[in-house]
């Protein structure tokens, strides 16, 4: 009887030890299985989950616009008053709904090339009005004239054409015209060939965003989706030094196994530069754990605050010898037009920049850019990319429409929020195929290890207690 009991206790302890060892072994083995599966599925080649979502985004991407409606155009032109603006929006378009085109695999260099077609469909149900809503906004052609043509004689000629076309510094335009283009009456009178259609995003529909070549990750998973070339080049030719480099991915995904310490680098053709995001928080998105990465204020800092930004300051007058921050001159990227990019409402910008504008109210929560990245796969499951388009307006003695101005203005025209969130169906599929399996494996490992250790300890204590009882 004693033997049977002792034998049973030893057997129980052995089973517990085996379960604990099996649970312990399953941890590195399980991690290896997960790593191998993820490495296979995030490669950009036919048949993988990543490729399927990469060719055509599985989530609806929306671009919301808020227009800065100028309330006091006459006061500004006559008295050089501060510009008073009122934000109107959102006006929402569905974008990036078209699949990538011209997809070419280069198996030798492990790259994939493609074109991303542009398209925008107005979404009335997600907008405060229609595309025909009218706004008082800066006259893009007149505002840029003095900047593009500093020669006094040319400005006299342009002034006569501006007056003849009855154009002014401000104009009334519909949303559709402002965004997608209109025939400008002043430019239509210019005697030499110039583009007469003006619009913040003209041309857009039926165009494509450059020609990208990215790494497939087949030979090195740490390079998956990282851009090799854009428009056939490894640099942009807009900025001096290393600021001109094309770094990281397009932000739709990143190489897998993302650590919180990693700095996520990505390139955005909208702002004509590479930029980066840093970890802020761990959040739950539809039952999936994601890491939120945000664009830090340091990314827009002046070279005084962040010496790495010295080569993004190409214009010394407006930036007050590169001491101002939160604004990026992208004129070189926009055929010389005086376009400046900032965060909406000049968030994280020098107070001096917004001194000439009233009606702005920067808000960290509403106006910052963030990416929610699933850390195991590196897929971006939710994002909000926010930026503001501003124009520099300079006084000019030779152009009547600009004669009343006594100072330079950085005029906000619109701000936009490009956003997407993984859909419920896709989230469920992701949970089943990726996180669910990983969580289940982790649970099995912990249960086996815990039960095994408890069994081993309990049976060994019982066995020792029996032996000591018997000895007595």
Keywords:
10 helices; alpha+beta; 472 residues; 2 domains; four-stranded antiparallel β-sheet; 30% helix; elongated
Short description:
With about 475 residues, the protein is of the alpha+beta class. It contains ten helices and 20 strands.
How would you sum up this structure, described in words?
The protein is α+β, with helices and mostly antiparallel strands and 472 residues long. It has two domains: 2-37 and 434-471; 59-97 and 120-205 and 235-422, no CATH class. Helix content is 30%, strand content 28%. The protein contains ten helices and 20 strands. The protein has helices at 2-41, 49-55, 73-79, 140-148, 152-164, 175-180, 185-188, 364-367, 400-403, 424-471, and strands at residues 61-70, 83-95, 101-106, 111-117, 120-122, 134-138, 170-174, 182-183, 197-198, 208-215, 227-230, 264-268, 273-285, 288-294, 327-329, 339-342, 357-358, 370-373, 380-393, 409-421. Helix 1 (2-41) runs antiparallel to helix 10. 35% of the residues are buried.
Helix-strand blueprint:
Elements: H1 2-41, H2 49-55, E1 61-70, H3 73-79, E2 83-95, E3 101-106, E4 111-117, E5 120-122, E6 134-138, H4 140-148, H5 152-164, E7 170-174, H6 175-180, E8 182-183, H7 185-188, E9 197-198, E10 208-215, E11 227-230, E12 264-268, E13 273-285, E14 288-294, E15 327-329, E16 339-342, E17 357-358, H8 364-367, E18 370-373, E19 380-393, H9 400-403, E20 409-421, H10 424-471
Parallel strand pairs: 2-17
Antiparallel strand pairs: 1-2, 1-20, 2-5, 3-4, 4-10, 6-7, 8-9, 10-11, 12-13, 13-14, 14-18, 15-16, 16-19, 18-19, 19-20
Helix pairs in contact: 1-10
């Amino acid at each position: 009887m004693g033997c049977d009991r002792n034998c049973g206790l030893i057997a129980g302890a052995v089973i517990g030890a085996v379960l604990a060892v099996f649970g312990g072994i399953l941890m590195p083995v399980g991690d290896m299985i997960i790593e191998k599966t993820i490495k296979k599925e995030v490669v950009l080649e036919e048949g993988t989950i990543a490729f399927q979502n990469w060719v055509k985004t599985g989530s609806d991407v929306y671009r919301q616009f808020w227009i800065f409606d100028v309330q006091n155009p006459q006061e500004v032109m006559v008295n050089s008053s501060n510009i008073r603006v009122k934000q109107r929006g959102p006006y929402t378009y569905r974008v990036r709904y078209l699949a990538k085109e011209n997809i070419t695999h280069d198996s030798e260099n492990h790259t994939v090339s493609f074109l991303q077609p542009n398209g925008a469909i107005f979404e009335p149900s997600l907008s405060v009005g229609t595309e025909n809503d009218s706004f008082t906004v800066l006259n893009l052609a007149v505002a840029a004239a003095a900047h593009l043509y500093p020669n006094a004689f040319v400005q006299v000629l342009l002034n006569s054409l501006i007056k003849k076309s009855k154009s002014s510094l401000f104009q009334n335009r519909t949303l559709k015209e402002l965004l997608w283009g209109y025939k400008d009456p002043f430019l239509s009178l210019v005697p030499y060939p110039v583009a007469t259609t003006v619009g913040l995003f003209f041309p857009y529909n039926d165009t494509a965003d450059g020609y990208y070549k990215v790494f497939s990750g087949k030979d090195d998973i740490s390079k998956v989706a990282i851009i090799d070339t854009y428009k056939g080049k490894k640099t942009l030719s807009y900025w001096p030094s290393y600021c001109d480099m094309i770094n990281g991915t397009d932000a739709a995904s990143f190489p897998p196994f993302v650590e919180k310490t990693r700095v996520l680098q990505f390139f955005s053709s909208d702002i004509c530069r590479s930029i980066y995001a840093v970890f802020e928080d761990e959040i739950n998105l539809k039952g999936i754990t994601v890491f939120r990465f945000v664009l830090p204020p340091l990314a827009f800092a002046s070279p005084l605050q962040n010496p790495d930004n010295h080569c993004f300051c190409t214009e010394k007058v407006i930036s007050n010898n590169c001491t101002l921050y939160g604004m990026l001159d992208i004129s070189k990227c926009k055929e010389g037009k005086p376009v400046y990019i900032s965060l909406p409402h000049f968030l994280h910008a020098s107070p001096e920049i917004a001194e000439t504008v009233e009606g702005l109210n920067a808000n960290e929560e509403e106006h910052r850019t963030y990416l929610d990245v699933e850390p195991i796969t590196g897929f971006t499951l939710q994002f909000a990319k926010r930026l503001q388009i501003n124009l520099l307006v300079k006084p000019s003695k030779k152009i009547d429409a600009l004669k009343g101005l006594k100072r330079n203005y950085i005029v906000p025209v619109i701000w936009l929020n490009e956003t997407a969130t993984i859909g419920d169906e896709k989230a469920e599929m992701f949970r089943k195929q990726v996180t669910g399996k990983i969580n289940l494996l982790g649970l099995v490992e912990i249960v086996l290890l815990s039960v095994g250790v408890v069994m081993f300890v309990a049976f060994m204590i019982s066995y020792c207690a029996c032996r000591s009882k018997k000895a007595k």
